[in-house]
Records
---
Amino acid sequence: MAAAAVSGVTAAGQHDQTVVGLPASNPVKQPWVWPLPQKWERGTSTLKVNENIHFDFESHNTILSKAVKRYHNLIFQKDDYPMIPYNWTTTDSHARSSLSSVYIDIRDKSDHLDMDTDESYSLTIPVSGKAIITAKTVYGALHAIETFSQIVQYSPGLHSYVIPNAPWKISDYPKYKHRGLLLDTSRHYYAVKDIEKTIDTLSWNKMNVLHWHMIDSTSFPYKSKAYPQLAEKGSYSPAHQYDAKTISGVVQYAKERGVRVIPELEAPGHSTSWGYGIPEIASCVNHVPYFGYTVQPPSGQLNIAKNKTKEVVNKIIDEWAELFTDSFFHASGDEVVMACWTNDTIVASYLKEHNMSVTELFQKFVLDMQDHVRSHKKTVMVWQEMLLEYQFPLPKDTVVQVWVGSSGVKATTEMGYKTVVSSSDYWYLDVGYGKPRSNPYPDVAGAGYNHWNRVYSYDIRANLTKAEADLIIGGECTLWGELADHTNFEGKIWPRASAVAERLWSGYETPSGENITSADAILRLLPWRDRMLLRGTMASPLNQGFCTRNPLDCFQPPE
Amino acid sequence: MAAAAVSGVTAAGQHDQTVVGLPASNPVKQPWVWPLPQKWERGTSTLKVNENIHFDFESHNTILSKAVKRYHNLIFQKDDYPMIPYNWTTTDSHARSSLSSVYIDIRDKSDHLDMDTDESYSLTIPVSGKAIITAKTVYGALHAIETFSQIVQYSPGLHSYVIPNAPWKISDYPKYKHRGLLLDTSRHYYAVKDIEKTIDTLSWNKMNVLHWHMIDSTSFPYKSKAYPQLAEKGSYSPAHQYDAKTISGVVQYAKERGVRVIPELEAPGHSTSWGYGIPEIASCVNHVPYFGYTVQPPSGQLNIAKNKTKEVVNKIIDEWAELFTDSFFHASGDEVVMACWTNDTIVASYLKEHNMSVTELFQKFVLDMQDHVRSHKKTVMVWQEMLLEYQFPLPKDTVVQVWVGSSGVKATTEMGYKTVVSSSDYWYLDVGYGKPRSNPYPDVAGAGYNHWNRVYSYDIRANLTKAEADLIIGGECTLWGELADHTNFEGKIWPRASAVAERLWSGYETPSGENITSADAILRLLPWRDRMLLRGTMASPLNQGFCTRNPLDCFQPPE
């Protein structure tokens, strides 16, 4: 029995754009937009899109002016031989009118960006006349333009860009406020252009947070004004550093794309690299066998008994609080090994002298550090260990990031904390590549590869009460840097981070209560991956080229 | 206890090239050459290398002339801030003389390349005077130049390229004759420049076979002269084809780098794409549910009952026998599903009429096909199913490629067949990325990710008698194309294929009987990955940057 007879699809004759791929009676019940908009209506007409299309808005909006320039390039890009044959163009001969203008109406003129920024928008594309975007903020308008850009297709038949299925009426908003990616620039350094490229792709996926894990044990790329020796001695080289100007540039670049940059100050664990520039503030630097002092070489934690340590850390916080304009600041706190401190003679003497346990001193250090962050009117984020492992009395305004498996989400929300979900068993994008070291070191997070479908399948609300679920402010996928660098980071992030993006933006059900399934999603994710490729993002393939052309055959075999 | 005290390594102060990384008393007992040469002697002197170094040889050797030009560029490349600090340059101040000339002596003037080509060479670099390369063939000389290129390092201290540890005396030859990579250009198409880049990197790793899996069910990119409709209808697009001129160019490109190109004519399974151009020669094209007719969508096998099928296949064999000048020809034969044929009315009638079983007809088809390959004086390669699953009476000169797990090697060699090892559980480079499809389809090869150390750990001689082991002519790692394409193929292949390369070239013991261990290998593989990067190959990282700088700390923790 041939597939054509069952599903309406024929794969015979790969070149004929009118018969390959999705059939004219489009079985894809959702628009080819990623992430899926909350509400949409569409028609059956095809509009041509004028390549000189005009975006009409108040001209002093510089964020919008720049965005429109970018999108002019992004919209009018074509692949002469796309893997996705644009079946929508089968209605080409009926294309009636041409769209020449998009009016953008923004209510709130402020360009302030934080977690509570209103990102909603509506987009209307009539069969004739102007398209209209309305949004509360410029950031909603950016999302609207992105959605618009994804609706435009190139029609080989008409030798023109077209909008199929007009008229369109989209009303959209995110389910979760915090939609992010963690990038680790310590284990391997990323050039600014790689970070910017990542911000671009985040914004296309309507993600709004770059969690910048800048420093770690392996290298200290931050060029501090107060303590330049930290980068001088602790970075991989003078070419592997981020100075204030660079960071401000990245923050501004991100803001113009609706992306917040949240810095993570990794401390007091994973801190070997601080000790290269200022040896006195570090304990157990390069102690061997490492395994006794750290979960991963090299060993080294901040010396929590010294005032100098607090002085240096506070100064870096002061500098970052200014450079990173976002209202969130990640104060870290993960993976310390007590033996690093108990074997440090200075720490040991201090504990004895003050009759304190090492955990008490650790608690004092991190709570003081977090208070210093709060003194800059920042919301403190921490890793789950602070709460679940060490059970420190964190103020209730602390945002806790869960990473050790998915069970942590229940625990943190049960305790009433706002939670960001990064469960390693679903949303770690760096794992599954085996043990990067010889014995006796354990695997990184010990997890298998998280295939896109597994990433997408993760219901971050599982087993939660309504009240608990409401405490989830969003999530982040992570690309830790052991086995990722310039050569492979984009393919590891994309398109899997897109799966996270859709769950955090679109959620798990449509507003009318219909489940959003991976079987539906793959039909949109395949062309979305191709569009990201066309835009220059090296997103990995999801399946053989045949499946991209004939998704119903590969992904929805009739029973 | 600081690492420095134990291993001689200090990681304190990352920028100081004299103290970071491997200590001056080089603990790496093997030269930084990949794959490891069979025999080497080295000294303690440092030579400068003249950037106008002259390679002296008979000028009419065009392969050598071109190689020398290439290597002039490859040798004199530097990374201003390499992840591997060249500790060898700690002897900079003692650099005495400058090397300006390499004399190349080739005994055999023929440039014929096949499995039995002598690839051995010797390389001598004295403390003063000319370096000397001797080789039986130009292909041995190419390997010698590659080895030479890897011995040259840039010294930041001397602002010069240097050869450390002179004098050198290397005598080298491969343990196995067949050292290859399979590239699948059907599931995803690769541009010629990607194939050429792969050939480049193969040659740097002293690998000598590109197994070109050109066609499969998903697309038919080969532009046949006799049957142009096969590519016209069966390729992904006119831009996704290989014509005769392109193929000859690739074969010549490879030959100039000592790499043989062995074509695989996938038949009669995995053959849907033939049916797009010539429907009458295919059975069960796009039958659903696919799972009953194929191991992977789309379904479709050659119609083994029709004369026309034989006619087309033989014609393609004729064309390929000429285009692919190598003496090997892969006649495939894997993964057929009998139900595809037994449900085909034409095949079923034929079987009834001739009173044959489907297996008998299948056997006749493949043995006839193999005979036709032999009529071109080619050695026939097949997949293991031909022998181990279907137990067809293959002539003893057939080379059998094992892929279904490692146990097949024992089986094929026990039966006395020359064997190429590609066991999926060790040497498949495409697996480990989860199920690329929804249920009910099985995972690709069902295997986990093969980490470099697992790849390297595979002893292809395990459990074999001496006589059986002697039947192994070599091996191939594979990059099947479900989840690999232009965006990620290099990072999936390299540096893991380098691990295969070393096992096949250097073997498992040195000529003096010492085991070649992964603990030794990683110290050479880290800089080799960095050198491949410098040459433009997007090889994936093996561990955090810190570990590249301080390999003894990450990979050889003192007990």
Note: Residues 1-26, 87-91, 436-446 of chain B have pLDDT under 50 and may be disordered.
---
Amino acid sequence: MKPDMTRYFPILTWGREYNRFALSSDLVAALIVTIMLIPQSLAYALLAGLPPEAGLYASIAPIMLYAVFGTSRALAVGPVAVVSLMTAAALSNIVEQGTMGYAVAALSLAALSGVILLVMGLFRLGFVANFLSHPVIAGFITASGIIIAASQLKHILGINAEGHNLLSLTLSLVEHLSETNWITALIGILATGFLFWVRKGLKPLLMRLGLGGGLTDVLVKTGPVAIVVATTAAVWVLGLADKGVKIVGEVPQSLPPLTLPSFSPALLGQLIVPAFLISIIGFVESISVAQTLAAKKRQRIDPDQELIGLGAANIGAALTGGFPVTGGFSRSVVNFDAGAETPAAGAFTAVGLAIAALALTPLIFFLPKATLAATIIVAVLSLVDFSILRRSWTYSKADFTAVLATILLTLALGVEAGVSAGVGLSVLLHLYKSSKPHIAEVGQVPGTEHYRNILRHDVITDPAVVSLRVDESLYFANARYLEDKIQNRVAGDKAVRHVILQCSAINEIDLSALESLEAINDRLREMGVQLHLSEVKGPVMDRLKRAHFLSELTGKVYLSQFEAAQDLLKCPN
Amino acid sequence: MKPDMTRYFPILTWGREYNRFALSSDLVAALIVTIMLIPQSLAYALLAGLPPEAGLYASIAPIMLYAVFGTSRALAVGPVAVVSLMTAAALSNIVEQGTMGYAVAALSLAALSGVILLVMGLFRLGFVANFLSHPVIAGFITASGIIIAASQLKHILGINAEGHNLLSLTLSLVEHLSETNWITALIGILATGFLFWVRKGLKPLLMRLGLGGGLTDVLVKTGPVAIVVATTAAVWVLGLADKGVKIVGEVPQSLPPLTLPSFSPALLGQLIVPAFLISIIGFVESISVAQTLAAKKRQRIDPDQELIGLGAANIGAALTGGFPVTGGFSRSVVNFDAGAETPAAGAFTAVGLAIAALALTPLIFFLPKATLAATIIVAVLSLVDFSILRRSWTYSKADFTAVLATILLTLALGVEAGVSAGVGLSVLLHLYKSSKPHIAEVGQVPGTEHYRNILRHDVITDPAVVSLRVDESLYFANARYLEDKIQNRVAGDKAVRHVILQCSAINEIDLSALESLEAINDRLREMGVQLHLSEVKGPVMDRLKRAHFLSELTGKVYLSQFEAAQDLLKCPN
């Protein structure tokens, strides 16, 4: 019973070893992360189309639940940019932003996503996430970053604009451009400029002044707090809210409320696909951060338990006024760099944010939305990385196609269509590649027992013996290709008496391929040609023995290609 | 220019060599096939829900066009059972059977299918058909056979019944069972019994009487003609049509008419998916017959040119009052066995059928529909073969799952849903299998240079060196699995200093897997562990050289696993 409990409750493992050193490290990390998270949480709530306090709430219960169930020691869970964008995209199709129904639908989306993650974790279905290939993720993140940045321009300019893909957003922005509030635009552009300078200019400056890399990074991450304080003060002192600068306004002073998502079947039906995509993408983002940080301390991450941890966190978000959450890259890195030793650091962060929600919300009454938009823009533009296009072009045209399609379709059609198309395309390209495997005709390298491609090497061959090496597992998608290849090779060449299939690279033969081999065997028999196999792997041979094929095979199965060729050359029929 | 012409017009090749011997062989074959095709064509038109003459028309122009464009010397093109059933299923959802619109929609379906085949042929997309795995096809054909047989019971009993899956058909049959016309039922049951006897009883009898196998087969195939003649005569002489026996009735005495399919976008939109499925399934059936027959004479089949030939045949069907056609199994085998030497036999068959359409149609006025239904039932029940379930169960549970799902879904939901689900499922199962590849930790077989699984063999290992052999190409679906495996193996074992990946079974590394290898390399470096590769294949190495990975690799790339282990044991760091 006990090992099972620690599997599902990792807190039992690290909680038992908790000590004063870990406590002090965790408290320092929590303080730094809390300061960083306040503006970030507010901003991502804005991005998701929700009131700012939802961002704080979404960071409190989820982070605590993850501390109980998660396996990463440093992962910080809460709202992240891409998931917030996907939340806004999913909900805007269903309910109008700003209505009560919108906030309730956000709870339902988090609940649904939590249940999906939990079920995947309990049934160990984490492998589903593997179908999101790296190029698709890279393309998707880049395109999402562009859409998110574009979607925040309306706040920077103080205008209204709608849209969930680049085209509709751009058109809407251009349409409303004349309504720009110039004071808002000034704040927005200054804030954006300042934040970029903090990243690009301040960091090298501090490094040159002799500060350590870790401390510099932490200071740079608190840049948003400085601009929040500065712009809030400016709006308050100069009374800019009366001049049309949109501000955050009244935010309830409260701990996260207990909330109940709607479980109306119609709503859940509309949310199920977005919830699934949000779950998978959130999981992929989270697990890769967790793995990277765990490796630095030689710790283990259990992907299936991570699903359970993220599932619990999302259900927590649904019950406490939040929206879908996952493990975030930047917050987790800050947490790790600031010295977090255990998930307790997360719990302390949650306490810090709860205090902020209770006590500090009056202070952000005059916080301009343009400032929050600026923090979002600067954060997401660091995600935009077109180098994946160049890298994939150099490495593989199939991967390049998948990246390009994902980027273009995400920009053109929005996040859901983009990522779905990317996954579908990468699966199709993979199947296409393996449907036309490399089949080399091989011959003996003189004086050795090695056999190599006759087109690339100077090798010995015999007109009566054709040796073919298939560089791919045989399965339904390439079985008939092999039939065609062999038929074409042998049909016109009357000298051929033996065909040897060198099976050293064949890891599997499925039933379709087995039936193709039977057909090849039958057809070669009709032509008076024998079929032989060489170098069949153990597991493949085990399986072939369960079928009739070996008893019907006109030729033999040889341990090595050399042995096969020797035997057939000795006794030509 | 010339070789291109013979590629697209195979008739130029065989036509040039045509001689008196081929002519007489082809004429004999054509006579036999014509006699066999008359009842079969009428029956399949009935199955497709069309007037009987459509079956004759669908065998005339298509067979001639295939003779010009097709590469098989013996393939006989025309209506076949499964495609006729799919035609009925596709059209019944859109227009009412028996109306003019139904016949026009059948033309559109044939035209659409022809265009799809032609485009696939011209762009060499024949590999798409490979995604229909053998188990899925076997399951689909079996389930279709059952549905077809069930759909003909209404003609046997002389009642009305509707439905395109087993459940709805059965319910409808039971509902109308009390309306059974007993004279029709008598004719239907006698005809069915006679045809079964011809197959099971007459054939052994003739063989025992000393007739050759080929001649026996031909005689057996003409059984349907005998029962057509007998029952038509009975109905005519005894005046059974007046007693409620449904007969074929008046069939126009005419050559195939020139017809124009409807190109209404709404109709084409509804037909595009069925047309695609019909094209693919028809192509798969046709190509496997063609390959089997070609092998017997050591001839070549060009799959892409076959697509063009079948495409032309279907367009021909659309323009001459037919419906979708393909190369049929039984008619092609009869053609081959009867001695057809070239596609000219097909052209002569077309002439024979044209004469039948012109002159013989008054003779089938009194032909009972029950007789045609009986010929269909006996033909399709020979397609029903549940042994695929047993075979796939023994060989591979994944293949078994795909077969079972295809059979059950086809029976439950109909042909389109069944085959689509089967294809989807077999792709998913394939991806699932390759997403969890076999990864063996290997050690040295004492006294040799061979490395084998440490779990299966008594081998030498070193605590500082972990050697892993991955038995699968690395791509996005299994890249993260490898990351997890390596992290789990190394994270808890502080003694490990080197990880060697033996790449002998890796035929491809895609960009996702490359980035996973980079992540593995980075994480191992954090743990103070070096990553090495051994036995990387040429094409994989070529590609790796285009990326940065090799320069970042903490360890080396070795030609053999033995060399790698020797080197690392000599100089431990």
Note: The mean pLDDT of chain B is 87.
